[in-house]
Give the backbone structure.
Amino acid sequence: MNPDDLEALIHRRASGMTIDRAREVPRDVVERIVNAAVAAPNHRKTRPLRVAVLQGESRLGFGEAVASVMSAQGEDENRVEKARTKYGRAPVVLVVASAPGESDLETAENEYSVAAGIQNMLLMIEAFGLTALWSSPVKGAEEEMNGFCGFPTGSRMIGLIYLGHGTRETPPRDRPVPEINWLN
Ligand SMILES: Cc1cc2nc3c(=O)[nH]c(=O)nc-3n(C[C@H](O)[C@H](O)[C@H](O)COP(=O)(O)O)c2cc1C
């Protein structure tokens, strides 16, 4: 791959949530996507990445676990009901978490590393011609999510990635050119 190809891929990537729920993503493709995340830098080789792949019924089970926390937190009933089924909107949901560190700094650096790993995954997803959306985990439900996914207690939820085949083209994004302070 030359720089032009990589640059085009990076800029073509766009979030999308119009996903065909019924069309599976082959397991080896999911594995290759997830494996791309380990190539992100991680300080002191802490290997902080934690990933669970939700498919089939587990998406609804995860939604139930989240919804019961939301309900106990007194959240709006409509939002709670939505949470029960929302993870079924894609055939695959990647739950991505980061291991806590031995200090606040290490915990933060682990999170940066996992976030960088998610971008690697999103680029692989784009390269496979698939669609994804990085969504924020529901606040206050981390331990239930950790438990459901088999992650150690204290793991930090970084993102839930909806993944599948898009049902329509995502329009090109208009992204601002970054301001660079060139210093000599
Ligand atoms: C930490 C993080 C959390 C996000 N959470 C959500 C979310 O909860 N819901 C959502 O629709 N998009 C979420 N996004 C995706 C952004 O909304 C999306 O990347 C942004 O709109 C820019 O669009 P693009 O990815 O197509 O460039 C999140 C992105 C990041 C980095």
Observations:
- The chain has a mean pLDDT of 97.
